Every structure is written in structure tokens, then in C-alpha cells.
Write a sequence for this structure.
């Protein structure tokens, strides 16, 4: 079978289904002297590991044929628990005032994909609520099935300050952007619906001011909505900005500076100029009448694909963001003709101490994401599917002050953990990957096998554990071993 022709037939419906539209994205061009970032030094696997058999991040066809892939790939990790059979884009962790610790995760990648299979196997629909009192035996206490929670896409967030769980009905196919707000402070095991409203206009991704009073709904159809949640029972629209194509938005501790995963600027020829955009949103935070949003700077990079999110943190008095790109340069369709020319953005650490002059200081990449490896990987299961492949999707950090670890969902390569103690020289610390090796039945989108690790991980630092979901196999509790748990302290 000609895989490239197969991908060409798939690309249009997949792009629409993922809520990314049909816009074209111009490739990012930098100077010829700019070197492509090198792969991050790979982890040294200690006792009890079951390492990868090929280069860093790869699961080759030969491992499926031999049965090796079914055993999984573990480096300085071990599985503590598993729940459900599907997952989405976010895992959120929250401990309520009574001491109950809960996990919240969306159970589907796109609207409708897992409804039949999750109904038949009992995994549950919508956002799953787990009592994590004993992480080795998660107990499902609720399934949230209000409109936004059925298909939150990438919007699901919890605000610890106020104990609010919020999501917007995601993707372009699920207009007009219904937003659900839940109280999880009273008892996180049994969230209480406070409001359902149309405030999350064209929602796709989101952001939360740390004080929990402003929720931001980013719609890549060209909108950014600021929503007042001072009274979560009656959300109010504060600001609607149009003509922007934003993905995840994250905010500084005071809520006045926004770090935007900017997909790019729309024009008659498509979208261009993507990367990191830093905005002054102080007038929204201060509740100024008719607030204005000011662009402070924009930054791009040669290997840019689709910017996903930029998580802010600090260290030694300086400010940084942990930025991650998803997929390949999907809209320019470079990957349909030659995998070597398809940019895989992966992830990077950016110094934003001076918000007008941000600077990339290091990159986090796998060998499987490097241009020279791409053609050899094309026939690996899932590698030729543009919304899967050897690419990144989400990264998250366990804390905002001097984190030593970052966890990234890197789709076919699973959960990857990087040691960022030295911000300029990150190195891989551990990984955990459980590819699905047999088709599990009714799914709408391919591929039927392989990993689909897409979620932003959550962390239990006290126990040295990471929680994440794989779209093809569900929710996992992963224990860090061989000393790597110390990186969460």
C-alpha cells in the first residue's frame, strides 16, 4: 500500500475532525546557518527497565511482528495502576480542603471517537473523576457528561485557588462553545455543576488566571475570549479578540502577562508567523472598561510545527516558559511528500525574563523526531498518520518554582520525562510507553494500533508518580524509579 497516498486521502477529514480547519500554514524560514536542534541525550536505564530496541523514541514494525511491543517500554519507571481504555488531552490533579485527592481526565480525543467503545466496555463517557486516595487502585466516582465535558478537546483545566473545574465544548465542529463550570472544592470526588453557558466562544484550548477569576477560551478559528468567573454561576464575557489564531494560553502569577502558543497570523494565503507570543493582558485582569490587549513580542524558530502551549516557571529570579509544538507542520503538507522536510517542533525552554526579547535557551527532542530519521520510520505503525507520528503533543511541569523535571506526551513515543536541572542542557531521565498492539474495536479515526500519548501529565510529587493518559489505552499511574523520583522534589 502507498502510505503517502493513504495519508493524502485522510488529511482533509482528519484536520477538520481535530478542529484545526482547512487553513494553510506557511513554513517558517530561518537563516541557512541555523543548525537543526540536536536530540536530547537519552536516558540511562537502571535495574528493572525494559528499554527501547531501536533509536530513542522509536517503536519499529519489527517489534509488533515479534511481540516485543506488547511488553511495553520502560526506563526508570514502572506501572502502578491503569484505568479505562481511552484518553484525551489533559490530566488534572487536585486536593480539596477535606484532603481528598482526585484526578480528572477527558476520555476522548475528538467528539464521538470513543462514544461507542467506551459505552460497550464500561469505561465511561465525558470527563472521568477518580478518587486517588490509593493511587495503586483508582476509584471512579463520577463521569461528567454535561455538554462541554463530553467533548472538552484541549480546554479542561482546574484552578486550585478556587477549586473550579472548567471546560469548553471543543473543536470547530462543536459550536458555539458551551462552557461548563464545576465546583470541586466542596468534594472533588463529586463535582457540582455551577453553570453551563455559551461564553467559551469557538473554544479549542484555554487558560486560567491563577486567582481563578478569569478563564480564557482560545479558539483557533480566530478568537480569544476572556470570561469573568468572579461569580462562577453567572459567567460574563469581558473581552473578545478576533483575527488571532491561538492555541494554549498560560498566564504569569499575577495574571497580567499571557504566554500564547501562537499558531500564526491569518492572511489571504493562509497562516504564517507562528511561535510564542507574549501579551500584556493587565487591563483584563484589572477589569478596565473595554480592555485592550497589547502584544509585547513574538518569537519563532526554524523547526516550528504547531505551537501547543507554553507553561511559565521561574528559577533563580529569572522567568521561563516550557513550550511544546504538536504534530508535524501539518497544514503546509510537507510531510505528505517527504518526511525529512516535515518539521517536528518538539519542545524548548525559552527565557522570557525580558518579555520584549524572549530567547530560546535549549531544546527537548527525541532521536525519532529528527529529520534524518523520518523516512526510515515511515512504515512504523502510526508514523504516517499526520495526527499521530513521532511528534510531541503536550508538556507540563510539576511546579512553577525551579522545576527539575518536565513530562511530555510524545504520541507514538509515549510519556517522556526530562531532567531540566540544568536548563541549558536538559537530558532524558525516564520514559514509559504502552503501545496498543491489537485493534480494540469501534474507533472513528485511525490508527488502530500504537500509542496515542496526547495528554498533559499531572504529578504526585510526594510519591514520585506521574499520571497521564494514552488515547488508545486509558489512564496510567507511573512510578519513577532508580532515583528519578528525586527530580519531583
Amino acid at each position: 500500500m502507498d502510505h503517502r497516498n493513504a495519508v493524502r486521502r485522510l488529511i482533509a477529514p482528519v484536520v477538520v475532525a481535530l478542529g484545526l480547519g482547512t487553513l494553510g500554514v506557511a513554513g517558517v524560514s530561518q537563516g541557512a546557518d541555523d543548525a537543526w536542534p540536536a536530540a536530547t541525550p537519552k536516558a540511562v536505564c537502571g535495574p528493572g527497565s525494559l528499554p527501547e530496541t531501536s533509536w530513542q523514541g522509536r517503536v519499529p514494525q519489527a517489534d509488533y511482528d515479534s511481540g516485543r511491543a506488547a511488553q511495553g517500554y520502560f526506563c526508570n519507571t514502572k506501572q502502578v495502576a491503569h484505568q479505562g481504555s481511552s484518553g484525551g488531552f489533559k490530566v488534572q490533579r487536585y486536593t480539596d480542603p477535606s484532603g481528598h485527592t482526585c484526578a480528572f481526565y477527558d476520555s476522548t480525543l475528538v467528539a464521538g471517537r470513543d462514544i461507542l467503545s467506551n459505552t460497550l466496555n464500561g469505561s465511561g463517557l465525558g470527563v472521568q473523576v477518580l478518587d486517588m486516595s490509593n493511587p495503586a487502585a483508582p476509584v471512579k466516582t463520577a463521569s461528567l457528561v454535561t455538554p462541554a465535558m463530553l467533548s472538552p478537546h484541549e480546554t479542561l483545566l482546574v484552578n486550585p485557588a478556587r477549586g473550579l473545574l472548567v471546560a469548553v465544548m471543543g473543536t470547530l465542529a462543536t459550536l458555539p462553545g458551551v462552557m461548563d463550570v464545576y465546583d470541586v472544592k466542596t468534594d472533588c470526588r463529586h463535582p457540582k455543576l455551577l453553570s453551563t453557558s455559551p461564553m467559551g466562544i469557538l473554544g479549542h484550548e484555554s487558560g486560567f488566571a491563577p486567582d481563578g477569576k478569569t478563564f480564557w477560551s482560545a479558539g483557533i478559528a480566530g478568537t480569544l475570549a476572556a470570561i469573568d468567573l468572579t461569580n462562577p454561576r453567572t459567567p460574563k464575557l469581558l473581552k473578545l479578540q478576533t483575527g488571532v489564531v491561538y492555541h494554549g494560553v498560560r498566564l504569569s502569577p499575577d495574571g497580567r502577562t499571557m504566554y500564547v502558543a501562537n499558531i500564526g497570523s491569518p492572511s489571504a494565503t493562509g497562516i504564517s508567523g507562528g511561535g510564542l507570543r507574549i501579551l500584556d493582558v493587565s487591563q483584563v485582569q484589572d477589569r478596565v472598561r473595554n480592555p485592550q490587549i497589547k502584544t509585547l513580542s513574538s518569537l519563532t524558530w526554524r523547526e516550528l510545527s504547531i505551537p501547543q502551549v507554553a507553561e511559565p516557571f521561574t528559577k533563580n529570579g529569572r522567568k521561563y516558559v516550557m513550550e511544546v509544538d504538536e504534530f508535524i507542520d501539518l497544514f503546509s503538507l510537507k510531510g505528505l511528500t517527504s518526511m525529512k522536510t516535515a518539521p517536528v517542533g518538539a519542545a524548548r525552554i525559552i527565557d522570557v525574563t525580558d518579555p520584549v526579547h524572549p530567547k530560546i535557551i535549549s531544546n527537548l527532542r527525541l532521536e525519532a523526531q529528527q529529520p534524518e530519521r523520518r523516512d526510515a520510520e515511515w512504515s512504523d505503525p502510526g508514523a504516517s498518520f499526520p495526527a499521530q507520528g513521532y511528534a510531541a503533543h503536550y508538556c507540563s511541569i510539576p511546579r512553577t518554582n525551579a522545576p527539575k523535571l518536565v513530562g511530555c506526551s510524545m504520541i507514538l513515543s509515549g510519556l517522556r520525562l526530562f531532567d531540566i536541572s540544568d536548563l541549558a542542557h536538559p537530558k532524558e531521565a525516564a520514559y514509559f510507553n504502552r503501545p496498543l498492539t491489537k485493534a480494540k474495536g469501534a474507533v472513528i479515526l485511525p490508527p488502530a494500533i500504537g500509542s496515542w500519548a496526547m495528554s498533559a501529565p499531572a504529578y504526585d510529587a510526594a510519591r514520585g508518580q506521574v499520571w497521564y493518559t494514552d488515547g488508545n489505552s486509558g489512564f496510567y499511574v507511573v512510578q519513577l524509579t532508580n532515583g528519578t523520583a528525586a527530580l519531583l522534589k
About this structure: The two ends are 49 Å apart (CA to CA). The longest strand covers residues 257-267.
